[in-house]
């Protein structure tokens, strides 16, 4: 069965009526129903519906309907596109029609709608069909708007375009770095253009005669009065704008000379004529409070009568000074499209450098908050350098292309275990993904060894650190308790840390109650003093001999060697603990250690040597002066560790 | 070839060159002591240390088509044998003062060549051996009189109608530098080398007060001397400077209220709107707030400024002019910067 012939006028009228229906009911359903009812190919029906939409809109425009009704039609068309019953470009065509036919005031409202729907336009259905329409529409609008009057609207349109198009869109870009040469600043160069100048001629003519007639001062009517004008500065000042408009001139020798002369003069005026903050700042502050008056120059006003006011206007001055900085940035900067013979001479660069400094200084001096403004400008110009560089590189896209091969490998490759790649890379180097990191990582072949290296040992030894404290702790030295280093909280804290790392006493359970840190430290120091090797000169004294003799008398039966009666030293404990090692647990019961103590020692340290040492120290603590090597040897023999006992015997003999 | 031409030129113009040389030397050593604006405000008269008075046309120098030429004097003539220390303008005449003599010139004739003085007077000095200079002239419009002060430490009052000297204020011990008026209370002020500011009753000629400025600790500066170089008044307030620091005085209580932080000695001072302007032995015009802060220091061309004036006669040419030890008279259209300079030739 062939499809029935498509009847365009009928379809159109039916669509028109159902559009009106849909608008009234605020639903697209009648339109959908009509679309399905009608016979004919999809394409034909779509085109007819588009046509019908335009017709309805045209009627609305003719009767000057409100903008809401236009927007309703356009919204309906958007729905139609999403339902697939009209072509994607229809909403844009409709928008274009509306904006073309409306006065600018109403365009504002329509454009608000366009702005709101930016996400719609960016969606897949609309973007490719509509971007050209939107661009054309916006450009048409911009052309109708006044650049100086409708600044806000113009700005909105530009912002909208920026949101609509991706960052890499180049249609709005000044690729060739061209200047807007049309922006000519007109000022009165000869007296004919100036109303004031003409008056001066009259004055001059009658001036001399006036004196001759002796009626000076009388011919002056109050309406004539105005202010004196410095035409010299006026002309030079505004001539400078031409250089800002077209900086390429600066590479011309004579033009540069003039520029130099004029600039020096103008900047000297700025330097001399300081603006005072006092009246301005208070007014500005009020304005800021009132919601921030925003200052905008569409175009410079160049009447000579304004010159005086402009010179005392801080915003105006900032504008001019900023123009200088921008010009200098161009002159100094690398710009791809700058011809190669446009290079600065040395003296020019020097002048520019000096003047940049001067301009920044002047900006700092210009109230309000001049120094902050100057810094901000410097920052902005620095970021501008990035854009210049980007342009010089031919505006590369900001979207980074993912390398094609990276994806499959990423799926396959598993992250290797560190053991797999440690030392197995090229030249045994481990690649850390960053040159600097790789260099640091590979400074040493084995990082673990590097960590253990002796020069990385920053912790002082117990002897070194406690030397002073021990000395002070000896009662013979008679150090007043308040002068002792242990009272220094700083010293105390470091001492505690060191003890925790180096001394087994730190973890020793003790029954003694310490009320303060110095007290505790004092105790510790005394303990350490016992443990550490005594200073050599104290070893041999007469008293010692006497004592020895006494001991000999008392205990001569026990041991032939008197020195065995001396308690074990810390050094001995250290060396013996290493030998004892894993046998400490066997020895423990023979040193009359309780199960509880053994468990504590086990929990304090993992290392068997450390445990052995802890055991011995605990024993030494308990026994006090009775902790002699002999007693230890007895205990060892009892524990059937006779070879250890033997070595200890040898050691003590050697030591003595 | 070029050398030859210049050589011959040299010979033909030797006399001219000698003149030029003489003049350029004169210019090099020129000091402009005094200025006065014409009653119409379009002209400026300036007197220098060679007794010459130059008339500049302000309106043409300020016009839009001003050339270098319009910054040179319209006319120049020698008025005195001595330096022209002071110039004032009445509504018809320019009055100039030199050594021992005061002369008047009609403004209406002044621009013609070969202008003759309208009158001249000599104050009746009691010193016979030397002729005392006249440092300062001041018009007292209330009783149409002219005050003259200078080297003989006396202040003469001359009646402008008759030209007779009607009164003499005696009291200063050294020569008088400057004068000022307090019109409301009919008082005249004078500042002198002897370090005093004296207040005179303008009607009786009697001395009202003598302020010995150098005796006040706040403003005395013995290293610079005690001379009073400049005075200005406004209602109950007086500014004075010179050897002592530039100071604002309250005249009713006769106390110094504000000392301005300027090191150099000041030769000129004036009230201007809510500011105070002064100039002296530094190449700047100094602007101060009443509170005593320096608001701005505007660079000038002369090293030392001896004369500073504001043209109140015509709004259109309302400029500040300053001159000192150079042949240039700086013109400030906007008081914030020097616009250009008028030049003696």
UniProtKB/TrEMBL annotation, chain A:
Keyword Ubl conjugation in record: yes
Alphabetic keyword roster: Acetylation, Apoptosis, Cytoplasm, DNA-binding, Isopeptide bond, mRNA processing, mRNA splicing, mRNA transport, Nucleus, Phosphoprotein, RNA-binding, Transcription, Transcription regulation, Transport, Ubl conjugation
Protein's GO biological process: apoptotic process; mRNA export from nucleus; mRNA processing; RNA splicing; signal transduction
The organism's place on the tree of life at top rank: Eukaryota
Any one GO MF annotation of this record: RNA binding
GO CC entries: cytoplasm; nuclear matrix; nucleoplasm; THO complex part of transcription export complex
Domain Death intervals: 569-652
Subcellular localization: Cytoplasm; Nucleus matrix; Nucleus, Nucleoplasm
Major location (coarse): cytoplasm
Pfam families xref list: Death, efThoc1
Family listed: Belongs to the THOC1 family.
Descriptive protein name: THO complex subunit 1
Gene source species: Geotrypetes seraphini (Gaboon caecilian)
UniProtKB/TrEMBL annotation, chain B:
Signal peptide interval: 1-18
Keyword Ribonucleoprotein in annotation: no
Keywords from the named record: Repeat, Signal, WD repeat
UniProt entry tagged with the keyword Signal: yes
Segments annotated as WD repeats: 169-210
GO biological process: mRNA export from nucleus
GO cellular component: THO complex; transcription export complex
Superkingdom of the organism of origin: Eukaryota
UniProt-listed InterPro entries: THOC6, WD40/YVTN_repeat-like_dom_sf, WD40_repeat_CS, WD40_repeat_dom_sf, WD40_rpt
Recorded family membership: Belongs to the WD repeat THOC6 family.
Protein known as: THO complex subunit 6 homolog isoform X1
Organism from which the protein derives: Geotrypetes seraphini (Gaboon caecilian)
Gene responsible for this protein: THOC6
């Amino acid at each position: 069965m062939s499809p029935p012939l498509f009847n365009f006028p009928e379809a159109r009228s039916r669509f028109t009526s159902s559009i009106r229906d849909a608008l009234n009911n605020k639903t697209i359903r009648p339109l959908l129903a009509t679309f399905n009812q009608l016979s004919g190919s999809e394409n034909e029906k779509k085109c007819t519906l588009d046509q019908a939409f335009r017709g309805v809109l045209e009627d609305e425009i003719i009767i000057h309907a409100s903008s809401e009704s236009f927007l309703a039609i356009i919204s309906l068309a958007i729905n139609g596109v999403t339902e697939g019953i009209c072509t994607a470009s229809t909403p844009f065509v409709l928008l274009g029609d509306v904006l073309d036919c409306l006065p600018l005031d109403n365009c504002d409202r329509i454009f608000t709608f366009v702005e709101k729907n930016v996400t719609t336009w960016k969606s897949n259905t609309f973007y490719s069909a509509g971007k050209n329409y939107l661009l054309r529409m916006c450009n048409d609008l911009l052309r109708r708007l006044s650049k100086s009057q409708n600044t806000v609207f113009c700005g909105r349109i530009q912002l909208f375009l920026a949101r609509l198009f991706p960052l890499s869109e180049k249609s709005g870009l000044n690729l060739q770095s061209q200047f807007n040469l049309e922006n000519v600043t007109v000022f009165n160069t000869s007296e004919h253009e100036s109303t004031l100048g003409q008056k001066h001629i009259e004055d001059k003519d009658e001036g001399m005669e006036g004196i001759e007639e002796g009626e000076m001062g009388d011919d002056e009517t109050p309406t004539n009065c105005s202010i004196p004008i410095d035409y010299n500065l006026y002309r030079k000042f505004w001539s400078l704008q031409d250089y800002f408009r077209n900086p390429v001139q600066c590479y011309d020798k004579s033009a540069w000379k003039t520029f130099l002369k004029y600039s020096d003069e103008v900047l000297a005026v700025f330097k001399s004529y300081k603006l005072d903050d006092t009246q301005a700042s208070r007014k500005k502050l009020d304005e800021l409070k009132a919601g921030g008056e925003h200052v905008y120059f569409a175009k410079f006003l160049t009447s000579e009568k304004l010159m005086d006011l402009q010179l005392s206007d801080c915003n105006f001055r900032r504008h001019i000074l900023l123009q200088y900085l921008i010009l200098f940035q161009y002159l100094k900067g690398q710009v791809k499209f700058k011809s190669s013979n446009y290079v600065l001479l040395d003296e020019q660069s020097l002048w520019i450098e000096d003047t940049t400094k001067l301009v920044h200084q002047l900006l700092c001096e210009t109230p309000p908050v001049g120094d902050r403004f100057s810094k901000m400008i410097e920052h902005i110009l620095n970021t501008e350098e990035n854009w210049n560089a980007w342009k010089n590189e031919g505006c590369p896209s900001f979207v980074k292309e993912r390398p094609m091969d990276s994806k499959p490998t990423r799926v396959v490759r598993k992250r290797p275990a560190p053991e797999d790649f440690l030392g197995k890379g090229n030249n045994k180097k481990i690649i850390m993904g960053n040159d600097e990191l790789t260099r640091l990582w590979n400074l040493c072949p084995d990082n673990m060894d590097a960590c253990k290296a002796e020069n990385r040992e920053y912790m002082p030894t117990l002897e070194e650190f406690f030397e002073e404290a021990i000395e002070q702790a000896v009662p013979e030295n008679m150090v007043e308790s308040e002068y002792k280093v242990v009272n220094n909280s700083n010293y105390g804290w470091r001492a505690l840390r060191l003890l925790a790392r180096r001394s087994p006493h730190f973890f020793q359970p003790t029954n003694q109650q310490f009320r303060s840190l110095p007290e505790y430290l004092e105790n510790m120091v005394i303990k350490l003093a016992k443990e550490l090797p005594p200073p050599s000169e104290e070893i041999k004294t007469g008293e010692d001999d006497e004592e020895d003799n006494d001991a000999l008398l008392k205990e001569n039966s026990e041991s032939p060697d008197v020195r065995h009666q001396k308690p074990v030293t810390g050094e001995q404990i250290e060396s013996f603990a290493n030998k004892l090692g894993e046998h400490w647990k066997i020895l423990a019961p023979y040193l009359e250690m309780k199960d509880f103590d053994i468990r504590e020692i086990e929990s304090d340290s993992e290392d068997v040597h450390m445990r052995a040492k802890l055991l011995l120290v605990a024993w030494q603590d308990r026994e006090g002066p009775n902790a002699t090597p002999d007693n230890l040897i007895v205990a060892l023999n009892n524990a059937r560790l006779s070879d250890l006992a033997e070595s200890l015997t040898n050691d003590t003999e050697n030591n003595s | 070839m070029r050398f030859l031409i210049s050589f011959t030129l040299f010979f033909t113009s030797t006399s001219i060159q000698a003149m030029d040389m003489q003049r350029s030397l004169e210019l090099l050593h020129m000091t402009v002591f005094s200025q006065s604006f014409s009653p119409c405000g379009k002209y400026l008269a300036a007197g220098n240390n060679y007794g010459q008075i130059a008339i500049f046309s302000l309106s043409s120098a300020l016009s839009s088509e001003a050339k270098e030429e319009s910054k040179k004097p319209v006319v120049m003539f020698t008025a005195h044998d001595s330096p022209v220390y002071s110039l004032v303008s009445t509504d018809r005449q320019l009055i100039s003062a030199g050594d021992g003599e005061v002369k008047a010139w009609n403004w209406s004739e002044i621009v013609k060549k070969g202008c003759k003085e309208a009158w001249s007077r000599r104050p009746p000095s009691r010193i016979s051996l030397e002729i005392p200079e006249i440092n300062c002239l001041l018009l007292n419009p209330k009783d149409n009189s002219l005050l003259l002060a200078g080297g003989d430490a006396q202040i003469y009052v001359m009646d402008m109608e008759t030209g007779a000297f009607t009164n003499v204020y005696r009291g200063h011990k050294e020569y008088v530098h400057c004068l000022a008026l307090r019109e409301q209370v009919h008082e005249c002020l004078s500042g002198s080398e002897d370090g005093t500011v004296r207040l005179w009753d303008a009607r009786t000629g009697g001395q009202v007060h003598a302020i010995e400025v150098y005796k006040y600790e706040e403003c005395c500066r013995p290293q610079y001397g005690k001379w009073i170089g400049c005075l200005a008044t406004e209602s109950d307030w007086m500014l004075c400077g010179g050897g002592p620091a530039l100071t604002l005085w309250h005249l009713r209580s006769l106390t110094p209220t504000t000392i301005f932080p300027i090191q150099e000695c000041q030769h000129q001072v004036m009230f201007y709107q809510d500011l105070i302007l002064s100039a002296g032995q530094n190449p700047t015009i100094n602007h101060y707030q009443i509170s005593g802060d320096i608001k701005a220091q505007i660079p000038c061309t002369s090293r030392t400024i001896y004369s500073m004036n504001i043209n109140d006669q015509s709004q259109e040419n309302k400029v500040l002019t300053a001159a000192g030890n150079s042949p240039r008279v700086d013109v400030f259209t906007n008081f914030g910067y020097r616009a250009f300079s008028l030049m003696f030739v």
